[in-house]
Design goal:
The protein has about 350 residues and is an alpha/beta fold. It has 2 domains: about 200 residues, 3-Layer(aba) Sandwich (Rossmann fold), CATH 3.40.50.1100; about 90 residues, Rossmann fold (3-Layer(aba) Sandwich), CATH 3.40.50.1100. The strands form 2 sheets. A 6-stranded mixed beta sheet has the order 1-2-10-7-8-9, with helices on both faces. α6 links the parallel β4 and β5. The structure holds pyridoxal-5'-phosphate.
């Protein structure tokens, strides 16, 4: 179900430009996220999992058309693409990718042509959904049946013309400083809520981790706000494409971008706990602990889970490693599936990144 778009005037002002006044000169984001996303306490779930407290950062509610973590990244990518005069965008991901679906939704809304390269993955609910929704959203899909077809497919996808020119490239998982900028805003929302006394101090922020763009943005955002929280990154994709070193590097590259925009404050990343042991038996495949976690959430909380990231990350709490700690879970998975009929191109002056 999609709700009518919120009047833009009701959105809270962005916090990142208050830290980095020169940011607008570098990239002006589109207004896609209903800021700030809520934080709700999941008391019954926290009790079952023996946590001190448990809150959920409701990035599942980041936008009424289609939420989840990728909307924050796309605010910046699409603003950047439009400012550069792009007429189309291209991205890539596994068949069930949320990033690909989010790009189809918000690229279309921004009036851009969209294309995606899809790579093989085990069947999850989202693969069936994407099969149906991507064409309905007007996305051009290049599907690789085998991994060996990916390099050639990528060349075609990335450099083949779309609307008469090469499309703007959005890397898989939004693993790029431009996309990470959007995640920083989410971390700053938490810091502001704690400063304002609306949220008690927290010990750990637990984040489902793929390419680690989200975890990197959170670590950087908390560091910029001077908020001492530990980022617990729970890996769900093969180590080949992610890792704590890549996470720190992406945070540093994003900080370098902010330095270009004139941000001068010294920044030291806080504590990071990187966990590898919950990814089994493979990308997109559940395990006994994740099935148990999904049942606990269905019984005791009001958000939905999916197999690839959220349930497998929450499996961590079955193991009592964070017992007694005050935990904020970063809910990356959209609360709704998009309705293609509700996704219409929108143009106008409030599209901050649109060329004049
Ligand atoms: C993309 C995604 C992630 C992983 O985010 P990264 O920034 O690539 O680490 C986690 N959860 C969900 C639901 C996602 O769609």
């Amino acid at each position: 179900m999609s709700r009518p778009l919120a009047p833009k005037a009701l959105l809270a002002p962005r916090l990142l430009p208050q830290h980095v006044p020169g940011l607008d000169a570098l990239v002006r984001p589109l207004e896609l996220v209903e800021r700030p996303t809520p934080v709700t306490e999941a008391g019954a779930l926290g009790d079952r999992w023996k946590l001190g407290r448990l809150w959920i950062k409701r990035d599942d509610l980041s936008a009424p058309l289609y939420g989840g973590s990728k909307v924050r990244n796309l605010e910046f990518f699409l603003g950047h693409a439009l400012a550069r005069g792009a007429t189309g965008v291209v991205t890539m991901g596994p068949l069930g990718s949320h990033q690909v679906l989010a790009t189809a939704v918000y690229g279309r809304r921004a009036g851009l042509a969209t294309r995606a390269l899809l790579t093989p993955q085990p069947d999850v609910r989202e693969s069936g959904l994407n099969r149906k929704l991507l064409p309905a959203l007007g996305m051009e899909v290049i599907r690789c049946e085998r991994f060996i077809d990916v390099p050639l497919g990528l060349l075609r996808a990335r450099f083949g013309q779309l609307e008469g020119r090469a499309p703007y490239w959005i890397p898989p998982g939004s693993h790029h400083p431009i996309g990470v900028l959007g995640v920083i805003e989410g971390a700053l929302e938490i810091a502001r809520a704690i400063e304002a006394g609306e949220l008690p101090p927290i010990d750990d922020v637990v984040v489902p981790t793929g390419t680690c763009a989200t975890a990197a943005g959170l670590a950087l955002g908390f560091a910029m706000a001077g908020l001492p929280v530990r980022v617990v990154a729970v890996r769900m994709v093969p180590m080949l494409i992610t890792g704590p070193g890549k996470m720190r590097k992406l945070a540093r590259r994003t900080l370098a971008l902010l330095r270009q925009a004139g941000y001068a404050r010294p920044v030291t990343l806080g504590e990071i706990l990187w966990l590898d042991q919950f990814a089994g038996p493979g990308y997109g495949l559940p395990n006994a602990l994740s099935d148990r976690a999904a049942l606990d959430v269905a019984e005791l909380a009001d958000f939905r889970t999916e197999t690839t990231y959220v349930a497998k990350t929450l499996a961590l709490f079955q193991q009592r490693d964070l017992q007694g700690r005050r935990v904020l879970f970063w809910n990356t998975y959209s609360a709704v599936d998009p309705d293609p009929a509700a996704v219409q191109p929108e143009h106008g002056p409030h599209w901050a990144g649109a060329p004049a």
